[in-house]
Each structure stands twice: as structure tokens, then as C-alpha cells.
Please model this.
Amino acid sequence: MFTSITWEFFVTALVAAIGSYYGITTLLLYHREIIQWIKSSGQQPVAQTESTGIAEPSHAVMGGIQKESTQELRSSVAAAEEIYADTTDEEPETVTSPEASSQDTLLIGSVADLLQEVKTLSQLLAEYKSDKAEGESLFRTLLLRYPHLRSTTYRDAINFYIVDAGRQQFSFDLSSSEVNAWWEEERPSKK
Model:
């Protein structure tokens, strides 16, 4: 069977198959644009400009080009002293030290890391249907890894995030006072 097919017939069939594939695909995907192009090619003639001789369509998509000389664009010339005013006497409204801004950046990065770990831990506790004691132990261990966040203003936001995640995913209830107690290093003894 393969000996009866010539290379010429094979290449012709291959080119025909590829050509018809791309032809059909083009027609299916771009039929509206092709119809629009055919309709618009006969109706609107291309106009020529007098000065340049460049042909431009009468319905330009982005609009025409403004022909102005570069001398008209400059309206005034100013001295360098006028541009650069003396600002040594003025003080900026807010002055932040580089140490404070880098410290805030580090804290925000730590908060983001902690919230990501809280999210992961919440998903694991919900997936394995853990009880409240196990959840408390895991969250307490997690929060003790971030002692530098204990006395910041972000603590309340983190507590709210944990309570909200617990309300949505856990089978047990959490209160903000319980979560707030998890930040302490020692467990309160129950008698």
C-alpha cells in the first residue's frame, strides 16, 4: 500500500490538508473581520495628502497627526535658578528615620508570614477535623514563634483573623480572649 503512494502525491495531500485547516480556522475565527474588510474596501477610498503625498485612510483609528513646528512648542525659556528654587530652609512635613521604616517593613513582613501560616494551619485543622485542644496547642506553638509581634498593634488584627478563620472552618468555637491568651508563654494551669 505504501509503495503505491508517491512523494509528490504525499506532499500535495499534506499541503492541501494544512491549507484547508488554516483556511477553515481563519474563516471560523475571523469571519466578522473578513466580511467587514470586504465591505469597507469598496466603499471608502483612500485619500492622498497634498504636502507629503502619503496615502492615509479617511477613517483613521487614532486620529490625524498635528503638524506643528518645534519652535511653536516652546513657549518660554527659564533660567536654571528659577527652576531649582532654594529649598534648604524648608523642612518636609513628615520625617521618618530609616531605622523606623525598616522596622515597620520587617514587622509587616512577619505579620504576612504569620497570617499565611495561620491560614495553612486553619485549613489543616478543618481538613482533619481536629478538636479544640489540638488546635489550641498548634496555634499556641505558632504564635510563640513570633514573640516580636506580641506587643505590637498588629496583635489584635492577628487575633481577629484567627477567630474569623475558626468561625468559618472549625467545628469548635473560639473567642478573642482565648486567642489572646495563646500569645503568653506559659499555659494557665487548670485546677
Observations:
- The first strand starts at residue 47 and ends at 48.
- The chain has seven helices and two strands.
- The helical segments are 7-43, 70-73, 80-83, 98-127, 132-144, 154-169, 176-181.
- The first helix runs from residue 7 to 43.
